[in-house]
Amino acid sequence: MTDRHSDKISFCVTISDDDIYEAMKSIDGYLDITSKDFKEVYQVAYKHALNRVTKSVEIKEVMTKDVVTVIVDTPIIEVSDKLSEHSISGMPVVDDSGKPVGVISEKDLLSRMGADHTLTFMSVVTQCLKHKGCEVMKIANLTAKDIMTTPPICISENAPMHQAVSVFMSKKVNRIPVTSKDGKLVGIITRGDILRSPLFQINV
Known about the structure:
Helix 1 crosses helix 2. With 204 residues, this protein is α/β, with parallel strands linked by helices. It has a domain of 132 residues: Roll (CBS-domain). The chain has eight helices and eight strands, in the order E-H-H-E-H-E-E-H-H-H-E-H-E-E-H-E. Strands 2-3-4 form a three-stranded mixed sheet. The protein has a three-stranded mixed sheet with strand order 5-6-7.
């Protein structure tokens, strides 16, 4: 399973007459429709249409349903293997009931190795070569629960899409576990999912 691929709903934002009308009402003064005026109307209408659609589309319609996960007792070597195997930078950590209890990412691994936020993979390689030893050994005996960020920031599958956008912007996270009414993990949504979504294809 991977959090990079899923069956997603196909749709796009179509700017309606109402969107144009609402945009024109929000612009002060008389409109003599020049190209500059139309561009302004279009930009405001776009925002109106996008806001309307993101409020009507639920997370479950765009989320990735097949999610790569680990449990709290998963050894770090297995965590690393999964991240590498699926070419992802992070994933949820779940308990025995399938509820997310944390999120683990490459940044968490680097942080526990004593790295600051600027350290990259190649920086780790360089340090290992310079010191004739590997920084990774500092965390070799740890498990997911020792490294994960907790509590996880989750979102309901029935929440409108604009709430996910708001969380990405305010919490500075790259992925959000999606939960059902009983709190179990049912999917995940990433910044990339939103940016790649057909939602952002605008038709006039």
